[in-house]
């Protein structure tokens, strides 16, 4: 099965805790501080593996946890940093923050990496807090928590081969008989259009994705301001299969159809005619088809003259005659056909790059029903988590950090009085003006 969506939970490793320790030397009753820093927590990194084609793995495995950094040790020894966790994803994976929908990474090139959750910094040991006034501090930080978030993965199903042709020539029939799997695809964000796509496997096991291209193009010509991602579908379509009804159903003339469709393709200005085309002469099971094909072949030969004419594959989508040969040849042409960029490199670059911003609110002030003041906010909670409450001095340092962020002042401005209770997560304390 060909899955295009997955939701995963990632939590990077916490930094190791800093240590409170003192030197113990012979004959020295009170040595200086000797608590080492904790090591960095492991990040979670997504890496493109060109061998993958689906997001199937994420159905069974949707939780990724980074390794914690090692705690700091006595004798000023640092904790070791944790190894990052590498998660392999197929090329074409788009990663978003599931909550805000913000784009985190657009992974396309083999080996390309994106840090999706950063490991926490190691907490500092007490040897880092020594000052002239406080030569033996009992202050150490806990490691910073690793980043944690819910991610939405989306695999761009890129069509290698596009089907074109008049209505009722048999495009859907052909697609349905060659598709090994129908990718479950969602409507694009910007249109309600769901292109008709199929995964194709040739007799020798080669794979490519085939799409009903007119469906895509019609969407593109209707939609104002279609995203770059949408047009990339057409850009990545390297080979065109032009399907023609050789049965001449409803009095149609095959060559006339062929010319009309080409005119239309030209008008889209998507470099479609530059791509190699294979002509699929369909409905060869119909009585008149053989005669029609002979005439069509002559017309094509005349049109192209000495130029290289596209290959014509007579098939019957209905009885599947000739279809395997058509697919073999298509796979071969695909191999030697590059992409047809519609956008200049710079534009693509900026859409490929990912951003990773820390957008932290400083702090928030709310109230519990019993009128306890409640302090929150990402940055404040992080400082709280990094405080080692086993040591009074560490707690005092936390109080200083709050003051310098302006928490005291803001509380006072909101009417907090001496003796009021204040809560941060599960920790209660008294407000002292
Ligand atoms: N005799 C015969 N009929 C076929 C063959 N392939 C398709 N048909 C028939 O032609 C009709 C149209 O086929 P579709 O596959 O729906 O054609 P389409 O090109 O996808 O048409 P649109 O969806 O309108 O673009 C259907 O009734 C098919 O059964 C074939 O090889 N031989």
TrEMBL record:
Domain of life according to the entry: Bacteria
Binding site for GTP: 165-172, 190-194, 212-215, 282-285, 316-318
Domain OBG-type G: 159-335
Localization per Swiss-Prot or TrEMBL: Cytoplasm
Cited PROSITE patterns: G_OBG (PS51710), GTP1_OBG (PS00905), OBG (PS51883), OCT (PS51881)
Domain Obg: 1-158
GO BP, one annotated term: ribosome biogenesis
EC annotation from Swiss-Prot or TrEMBL: 3.6.5.-
Protein's job: An essential GTPase which binds GTP, GDP and possibly (p)ppGpp with moderate affinity, with high nucleotide exchange rates and a fairly low GTP hydrolysis rate. Plays a role in control of the cell cycle, stress response, ribosome biogenesis and in those bacteria that undergo differentiation, in morphogenesis control.
Protein name: GTPase Obg
Protein source organism: Trichococcus shcherbakoviae subsp. psychrophilus
The gene coding this protein: obgE
